[in-house]
């Protein structure tokens, strides 16, 4: 496989790139190293993948000659995007439009006439569901995003479906449910909680802590991407990639306290606009079509992230 991984300096992107390289695939990475969080951390991620053999291109996808970059690529793993529900409001929304919608459209457009592309895998999000009416949510559940971030992820997903139907671009959209694990972004909950536990500092929690999330270990996310690249599925397919571990934030904090052996200092703050109370996805379709299922139990995954955090140069 000759793969292009966008967002190759990111949490999922570099983990995926390293996995592909270790299995003998050729990987070209692209990243613009934006400052949503400390770009030095992204460079550390990318350096690990480069050391493993990745060919790295630095720059803004919207300013690149994409046909040139994609000319010898078999599979596109489109992991790049502007993350974060809380910052997607107000004047920051344009950044989300550019990074999540326009970049996806540019990549899809570049793939239209490239017959070498066997699969275009888009990293979507469970945020497209918003506050769903039923749980676990299936791919037939009506998407109702609860944040501008979710709107942009759904719009890009629709673009993937449109280019599949109109131009036969072989897209697969994977709806990730709260990804965690080693090298998780510093703004994400598990990293903040574990860092604070290890350092003995206060842990801010937005809301009561009773909100429920379906947490998915990063290695399981990687395997879903690999399966989507290798299995024959109908262009335009949309699949949940969920860990099957819907638990409350307070339960996660209790597990972190147990694993670190620390007493946690927790401050409960007002809920943030755009956050949903619950997520929980059915992965039955991913199992049926890709032969994929989550393998890492939540406690084991948190233990791996605690070990990483205790040793990491972050």
Largest sheet: 7 strands, parallel
Which residue ranges are poorly predicted, with pLDDT under 50 across at least 5 consecutive positions?
none
Along the chain, the helix and strand elements come as EHEHEHEHEHEEHEEEHEEHEHH
Which superfamily, in CATH terms, is the homologous superfamily of the domain at 2-177 and 217-242 and 280-296?
Answer: NAD(P)-binding Rossmann-like Domain
Measure the end-to-end span: 32 Å
The radius of gyration computed from the alpha-carbon positions, rounded to a whole number of angstroms, is: 19 Å
Number of strands: 13
The percentage of residues in β strands lies in 15-25%
Class per helix and strand makeup = alpha/beta
Described by its quaternary structure, the protein is single chain
Please name the CATH architecture of the domain at 2-177 and 217-242 and 280-296.
3-Layer(aba) Sandwich
**CATH classification class of the domain at 2-177 and 217-242 and 280-296:** Alpha Beta
How are the strands ordered across the major sheet? 3-2-1-4-5-6-11
The number of distinct helices, counting runs of at least 4 residues, comes to 10
- Estimate the mean pLDDT confidence: 96
Share of helix among residues? 40-55%
What overall geometry do the principal axes of the alpha carbons give?
Answer: globular
Which fold name is given in CATH as the topology of the domain at 2-177 and 217-242 and 280-296?
Rossmann fold
């Amino acid at each position: 496989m000759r793969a292009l991984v966008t967002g190759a300096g990111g949490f999922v992107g570099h983990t995926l790139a390293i996995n592909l390289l270790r299995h003998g695939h050729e990987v070209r990475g692209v990243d613009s190293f934006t400052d949503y969080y400390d770009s030095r951390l992204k460079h550390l991620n990318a350096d690990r993948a480069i050391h493993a053999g990745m060919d790295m291109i630095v720059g803004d996808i919207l300013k690149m000659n994409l046909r040139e970059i994609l000319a010898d690529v078999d599979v596109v793993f489109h992991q790049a995007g502007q993350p974060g529900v809380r910052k997607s409001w107000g004047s920051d929304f344009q950044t989300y439009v550019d990074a999540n919608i326009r970049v996806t459209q540019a990549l899809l457009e570049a793939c239209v006439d490239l017959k070498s592309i066997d699969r275009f895998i888009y990293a979507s999000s469970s945020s497209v569901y918003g506050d769903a009416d039923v749980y676990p949510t299936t791919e037939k559940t009506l998407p109702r995003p609860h944040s501008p971030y979710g709107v942009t992820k759904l719009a890009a997903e629709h673009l993937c479906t449109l280019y599949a139907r109109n131009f036969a671009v072989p897209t697969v959209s994977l709806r990730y449910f709260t990804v965690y694990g080693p090298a998780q972004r510093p703004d994400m909950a598990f990293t903040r909680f574990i860092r604070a536990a290890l350092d003995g500092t206060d842990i801010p929690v937005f809301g009561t802590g009773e909100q429920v999330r379906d947490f998915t270990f990063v290695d399981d996310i990687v395997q879903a991407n690999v399966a989507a690249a290798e299995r024959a599925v109908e262009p335009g397919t949309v699949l949940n990639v969920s860990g099957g571990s819907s638990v409350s934030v307070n339960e996660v904090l209790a597990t972190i306290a147990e694993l670190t052996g620390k007493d946690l200092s927790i401050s409960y703050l007002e809920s943030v606009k755009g956050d949903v109370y619950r997520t929980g996805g059915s992965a039955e379709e991913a199992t049926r079509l890709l032969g994929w299922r989550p393998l890492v139990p939540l406690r084991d995954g948190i233990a791996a992230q605690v070990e990483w955090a205790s040793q990491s140069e972050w």
